[in-house]
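Ticket #4471: structure export looks truncated?
Reporter: QA, pipeline team
Priority: medium

Steps to reproduce: submit the single chain below to the structure queue and open the exported record.
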Amino acid sequence: MEGAGGEKLPRTGLHERAARQLRNMIVTGKLPPGAPIVEAELCEALGISRTPLREAVKMLAAQGLVELRPNRSARIAQMDAVHITELFEALSNVERIAAEYAALRLTSAELAALREMQATMERHYEAGDLAAYFAVNQAIHSAILAGAHNATLVEMHRWLFARAERARFFALGAHARWVESIQEHRDILAALEAREADTAGRRLAAHVMHTGTGVLALLTAGERAGAAA
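Actual output as written to the record:
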């Protein structure tokens, strides 16, 4: 197991840096749901001792990504269908409200930045670079929230978005969802450019819920395959 680029982490802020690295490994599936946290391997991969690693694990547990178990090693949390449903319901409604405000409040510069991000995301899509696509996709969602110019909405969204990140990446792993996602983003941008608040809100909410539905479908398919094996 290797850290990003095989580089050891600097001594300052070790547990925060370790948490970011571990989070990336969980989101991208390098540490899959149900996998145990093997401290010796992770300490070696990140070049840190057990103390900062355990602090990092506690941070990720607070975000719902790691399950702490008494007298047993921690493990990567499973993606539960009920939790996924509730999470995406909440996230879709926060993003719907934000998109409605953003359609009315985005500045010309903010809209131009969104157009540029969309173009960049399109290039990553054409190249089949899922990791790069996902990074820009994340930035677009955050930019729409910022364009609502409502700090409370941004704070609520940040909390929910962090918890949905793994599921969103998981959903995009299905090619059909990736194709749908890029078109949905085009439609959302068109509504924002037209300053159509209701349409922008409905399109973004539907986009988020489609992702949640895709996650549930993949989980169900995985469970069926496991039962048939």
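Status: closed, not a bug. The export was complete when the record was re-opened. Leaving a note from the reviewer for reference: The longest helix spans residues 197-228.
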